[in-house]
Amino acid sequence: MTSDLSTAFLVLGVGMASVFFILSIVVIGGKQLIRLVNHFSPDVPEKKIQPAPISKKQVIKPSTIAIIAAVVESVTDGKGRIEKIENS
Q1: Nearest CA among 51, 85, 54 for reference residue 68
Q2: What is the pLDDT of residues 19-64, one digit of tens each?
Q3: pLDDT at 42
Q4: What span, in angstroms and rounded, lies between the C-alpha atoms of 58 and 85?
Q5: What sign for the dihedral angle of Cα 77, 78, 83, 84?
Q6: How far apart are CA 44 and CA 38, in angstroms?
Q7: Contact status, residue 68 vs residue 82, Cβ threshold 8 Å
Q8: Do the Cβ atoms of 54 and 87 come closer than 8 Å?
Q9: pLDDT at 36
Q10: Helix, strand, coil shares of the chain as percentages rounded to 5?
């Protein structure tokens, strides 16, 4: 019985050590691959998006105001009120 138990612990230890070794190789290899790809890949410049210039006198169309008012009235069952509409 003692030899069976020691054999079981030996197989357990060898199995756990081999799994640890293989996973260590995978982790180290993955990190090295990431460093290699980041080192040799071309840098992509970030595109800076500039908003279109907005004139101070932009006017909201009356049809747009009517649509917004109808939606607010429908959603709030006539209890809502539009106080301000801003261009964005």
Answers
A1: 85
A2: 999 999 999 999 999 999 988 887 777 777 776 665 656 678 889 8
A3: 79
A4: 12
A5: positive
A6: 11
A7: yes
A8: yes
A9: 94
A10: 60, 0, 40
